[in-house]
Amino acid sequence: MIQAIGLTTRRRRRHGAAPLDDVSFTAAPGQVTGLLGPAGAGKTTVLRMLVGLERGRGAGLFDGLPYARLRRPAREVGVLLPGPACPPGLRARTHIRLLATAVGVTAERAQEVVELVGLAHVVDRRPRDFSPGMDRRLALAAALLGDPRCVLLDDPAAGLDPPAAAWLRSFLRALAAQGRTVLVSGRDPGEMAAVADHVVVLDGGRLVADEPVDEYRRGRMRREVVVRTPRARGLAELLADAGCEVLHCGRGRVVVAGMDPAGVGEIAFRHGMPVHELADRVVARSADRVRRAVRPPLAADDPAGLTVPMTPAVGGTRELPAVHVADPDPDPHAGPDLDVGPDLDVGPDLDV
């Protein structure tokens, strides 16, 4: 279990992060707890305070003890913070072997984590040649060397392509299924709703939500459909007649709620309306001021280069996370499981 109790800082932190104001929450074992908020909300400050890297008032406890009083902190708490996963000149194999020695674990454990994160085929390469997804896997391997009960990850999905993000989601769910306490931060409400069991929302250094993910979805998120078409006003009228709520119409763009993308596309097709982009997005309601996330578009013909590849559905009850796409035409209405089981297959032996 991870507990944040009254975390408070006096002044604005590095990179413009807001000072924390009495932030308290609990991350339970066997669950993924998401720490959600826009840039500067204080997410990284919270994680750094929990492990003693930031000064301030309050306490961070791991199974009832502060980080400084843990007997073997590297074997009880795994941490992934921003920064390179490995010095660029070292090979991944050498890096993991050195860390294993420092943590005090065996070569067999180093072998397990390399296989666990799927890096066996590149372990002799230097991380400067790694993709962002491979670099993140190496950082995860380092965090898990000590087989920790608690895992803290600061925005691990940032910069990942859809396949890498899907792998990360399944991996975090598997860690939680083993009974570990997983605390992961992020900016994307759709991504967080897809992976977390419980969501803690920060805004401006203050706690604005602390609730199960189902309640978060119902009360703080909504799904919208965005259409780009040269006949925006005509399409908006047709969609309104069909019962949609038109949230925005202008500059070749319509945003509606109350119908899925397939239904919107059928109406446009029936009436000969050209569609240049069709996407559905998950947005946080404006009161939370959490940045919106946009799912992959469903229509072709994207001259502005705004689309990303479609991602197949993953799991049964969990929704795919939204993928952020830059939006050059903001509208006033936009608000800010894979079940892999408790045991992970580590594959064949690897000589580390």
Automatic annotation (TrEMBL):
Domain of life: Bacteria
InterPro entries named in the record: AAA+_ATPase, ABC_transporter-like_ATP-bd, P-loop_NTPase
Annotated ABC transporter domain residues: 2-229
SMART domains hit by this protein: AAA
Compositionally biased tracts (Acidic residues): 340-352
Comp. bias intervals (Basic and acidic residues): 326-336
Record keywords: ATP-binding, Nucleotide-binding, Transport
Family (UniProt): Belongs to the ABC transporter superfamily.
Protein's UniProt name: ABC transporter domain-containing protein
Protein species of origin: Mangrovactinospora gilvigrisea
